[in-house]
Amino acid sequence: MEMFLMGLCLSLLGVAVSAAAFAAATRDEPRHRESEAGQKLPLPAAQFFLDDAGRPAAPPRVPIEVLLLQLEHHVRLEQAAAESFLDLPTRESLHTPSSSPLVH
Amino acid sequence: MTERQPDLLRGLAPADIAAVVALGARIALSEGATLFRLGSEASSLYLVERGRVTLTLPMQLAGREQDVLVEERLPGQMLGWSALIPPHRFTLNATAPLATELIALPRQKLLDHFAEHPQVGYTVLTNLAGIIGHRLQVLQAMWLREMQRVIELRCA
Q1: What is the DSSP string of B69-121?
Q2: Measured between CA atoms, how close is A58 to chain B, in angstroms?
Q3: Helix (H) or strand (E) holding A45
Q4: Do B68 and A82 count as a contact with CB atoms less than 8 A apart?
Q5: Cα(B16)–Cα(A24) distance, integer angstroms
Q6: How many interface pairs between A and B have CB atoms less than 8 angstroms apart?
Q7: Is B35 within a domain?
Q8: CA dist., res. B148 & res. A10, Å (int)
């Protein structure tokens, strides 16, 4: 009988210790998760939006075919401007800007 | 031969023009065909008879190499001075944006002809010097205009 009671007491003690350990473990976990989330969230999100707001909008991408046409047009206009300078060389005619969109 | 007198042969008598042109061979280029590439051996000078030839240089645009127009040659104009100037390598790419006809004048035949007809050689080489000189002045002016813009951008 004494042996039985001792076994019972030990079993109860074991159950109590296990329950206490489980309770402690489950109580720590959400707090830990909370703190992790608390560390992650604010910085990257805030920096991302702050940077975008401060940065000027990127220039629209010009298709390569359009850029090539613009360059061709620019070369023709600049050649014409250089030719007219040679016809009548003056300081003004040398530096008068052409109507090329690449120089405005 | 084109009705307009070719810039290289200006000042020559019609018989002399015919004799120089007879040294060459006619070449027909289809739309988009390449006449020569940068770095290739230059053994002939070309006169444009019909169509057009664009002279381009490679440029890096958006991470890709693209041929960018530098100059154009129209009927009556010549191209390919590199054939007469050492080291006889082309320094540009030449392509035909439309169906084009040219006369290819081989360097050696030209030089032999000039040796036999010094007056023709003198006139042709004087024309060549004038053409090269004019293009040099145009490019100098273009270069100076670009330099002015670079300075204005730097100081803005």
Answers
A1: EEEEE-TT-EE-GGGTSTT-B--SEEE-SS-EEEEEEEHHHHHHHHHH-HHHH
A2: 15
A3: helix A42-54
A4: no
A5: 110
A6: 46
A7: yes
A8: 96
Reading the block at residue B154, the tokens are 């730097």
**Per-residue pLDDT at A34:** 47
Residues of chain B scoring pLDDT < 50: none
Is B2 contained in some domain?
no
Enclosing domain of residue B117: 7-155
Name the closest residue on chain A to residue B59, using Cα atoms: A68
Q: 3-state class of B1 per DSSP? A: coil
Chain B residues in contact with A72 (beta carbon < 8 A)? 68-69
List of chain A residues whose C-beta atoms are within 8 Å of the C-beta of residue B137 = 82, 86
Give the angle A42-A48-A51 at the CA atoms, nearest 5°: 125
Contact A45, B104 (CB under 8 A): no
Q: Report the distance separating Cα B70 and Cα B68, nearest Å.
A: 6
**pTM for the full predicted model:** 0.68
Q: Is residue B106 part of a domain?
A: yes
Interface confidence (ipTM) of the complex: 0.74
Residue B139 lies in a domain: yes
